[in-house]
Amino acid sequence: KLDPTKEIHLPPPEEPVGAQLYQKAVYCPASRTLRTSGHIGTDHENRPARGRIGTDATPEEANVHARNAGLRLLSTIHHYLDGDLSRVEQVLHVEGQVNAPSDFTAHAQVINGCSQVLAEAFGKPKGIGTRACYGVGSLGATVSCHVQLQISDPS
Question: What pLDDT shows up at residue 44?
């Protein structure tokens, strides 16, 4: 169950962009898991956060971008679970990509922004799953970070 003492405001759910040859999330009834596509980091006005971390944005700014990506992930799963986030049994896996130069080493610090919002939304340990975070030389639309999620659903 979501923590009623934490107030989290979700942006509107998104539709696929570009060629639209993908879905924002897919539910597998056999494994009872919902897996999302990547959600890009955004600024406080929900605009894509562009640039490389360490060059165009600080790790602290990118942490906020990743947090906002986490809010967008929550909005997507809220939409795909018919508005019932209490159906989330466990965050299984978070994967975060950080657009950064090759000598950047604070990938985990950036993606912590997403992990923190999931822990706030679902509590511990349900909101904390496995995680992979790593740097990439570029991301589509030159965004600063990209996060995807896999959750389990008991229903």
Answer: 87
